[in-house]
Amino acid sequence: MERTGYGLVETIRVRDGRMPLLHRHLARLARSIAELGLPRPNQDIAALVAPFSGTGNAVLRVEVLDGWASLTVREPPPSAPPTVITASEPHQPYPHKTTQRDCFTDAGQEAEVAEADDALLFTPEGCVAEGTAWNVFWWDGDLLRTPALDLGVLPGVARARVLELAPRAEQGRYGKQALAGKSLFLTNAVRGIVPIASLDGASVPGDPRTAELAGRFWPD
User: Fold this and answer.
1) Class of residue 97 by CB neighbours under 10 A (exposed 0-12, middle 13-18, buried 19+)
2) 8-74 has which fold?
């Protein structure tokens, strides 16, 4: 059967033989299928990934396309703080984790040319949006800030986890100047919480609260 259209993706971390965020991935996938009116997958996703429980550490990429579910496996990425550039490629709304992600691919290529690890995208209006595969947070005094979902950023599984853990967090629309001198970190469901080393060549200051959040990130 020929497959057309776009797929939905969930990237699931196996950590010490466990999948601590699996239920969140399954809930997001079901929500996207319903909201986009896509065919339900032919397989039970929980059953599809179940054989990888107890297998140490891995990253499972589940793709659902035209009602078919497929699975690929890779090693976890390095955990070193990344160097990040500002992408010239404008952010396009990405409320569902689909395979239609050209702006992120282009931004990643920009980072590669600049010899950086990754790129941060901004909306056409100049608001901070998200990275190529992560949400962004930063400390601003006693507050933890992150771009609002109504900008069209992905409702990341890790993003939601951080908002549960942070004592004071605000979501909003922020220009690049809001990041100046702030301690930034990225979040995704594969790496958890990772400090950003530099933005556009300027070192990003550390903050002990980032390490404290990271220590509580993965559910028991």
Assistant:
1) buried
2) D-amino Acid Aminotransferase; Chain A, domain 1 (3.30.470)
Answer CATH for 83-217 from 3.40.630.30, 3.20.10.10, 3.40.30.10, 3.40.50.10540: 3.20.10.10
pLDDT per residue of the chain (220 residues) written in tens, 0 to 9? 444 578 999 999 999 999 999 999 999 999 999 999 999 998 999 999 999 998 899 999 999 999 999 999 999 998 899 999 999 999 999 999 999 999 999 999 999 999 999 999 999 999 999 999 999 999 999 999 999 999 999 999 999 999 999 989 999 999 999 999 999 999 999 999 999 999 999 999 999 999 999 999 999 7
Q: What is d(CA 139, CA 53) in angstroms, rounded to the nearest whole number?
A: 35
